[in-house]
Design brief:
The chain has helices spanning 2-17, 120-130, 134-148; strands at 25-26, 37-38, 53-54, 57-58, 64-68, 75-80, 84-85, 88-89, 92-93, 98-105, 154-160, 165-172, 180-186. The protein is α+β, with helices and mostly antiparallel strands and 191 residues long. Helix 2 (120-130) packs across helix 3 (134-148).
């Protein structure tokens, strides 16, 4: 009986700890064929079967882009569109830039800000349309939250291009503070 109870406790604790997105990041020097890799396991029962496609496009001056919260589909606002965007399939664009995420939540007072427009999902897909490299993606993401506010809780973004892999951590500044606090670091080659 003790073995059954102990097994049940272990299984229950593993289930509690497994309810989170999981990313693995692999640099060129750590892969057998010299590729960079980022995995993404979105542990959400409502996201099965989703594969987004956005074609490359040219946009006229003054075009606005509607932003909807990725998790709920709630309209958050509009942002300025750039003149040329890249094709995106899933979490990778035509330049082999890939972005995934893991939510860590963080302190509740640093969560969504009133009037903020950029949630974590929108940051990923808008950035994939606008950046060619991991370094450029970090700049685009930082600029988007500085300009339009950060709508999500704490996120860890895994960002990879054909040559480099980066991790970027982001959390809101708190109510009345527009933007986000963020840090990014390149994963050393061979890891």
């Amino acid at each position: 009986m003790k073995k059954i109870v102990l097994s049940a406790v272990i299984i229950f604790s593993l289930v509690l700890h497994s309810l989170a997105c999981t990313n693995f990041m692999v640099t060129k020097g750590a892969s057998t064929d010299g590729s960079t890799m980022v995995t993404y396991a979105a542990d959400s029962h409502v996201l099965y079967g989703e594969l987004y496609f956005t074609p490359a496009a040219t946009h006229s001056e003054g075009t606005m882009l509607d932003i909807y919260e990725w998790d709920t589909g709630t309209f958050l606002g509009k942002i300025k569109q750039i003149p040329q965007t890249y094709s995106v399939v899933g979490n990778m664009n035509e330049h082999q830039l890939a972005i995934s995420e893991t939510t860590f939540g963080g302190r509740s007072e640093l969560g969504s800000q009133a009037g903020a427009i950029m949630d974590y999902g929108s940051l990923i897909y808008v950035t994939l349309q606008r950046a060619k490299t991991a370094r450029e993606a970090i700049k685009v993401m930082a600029n988007l939250v500085e300009t339009y506010g950060y709508y999500s809780s704490g996120e860890s973004f895994s960002i990879a291009d054909a040559n480099e892999v980066w991790i970027m951590e982001m959390i809101g500044k708190g109510e009345g503070e527009k933007g986000a606090v963020w840090v990014a670091q390149r994963i050393p080659d061979g890891y």
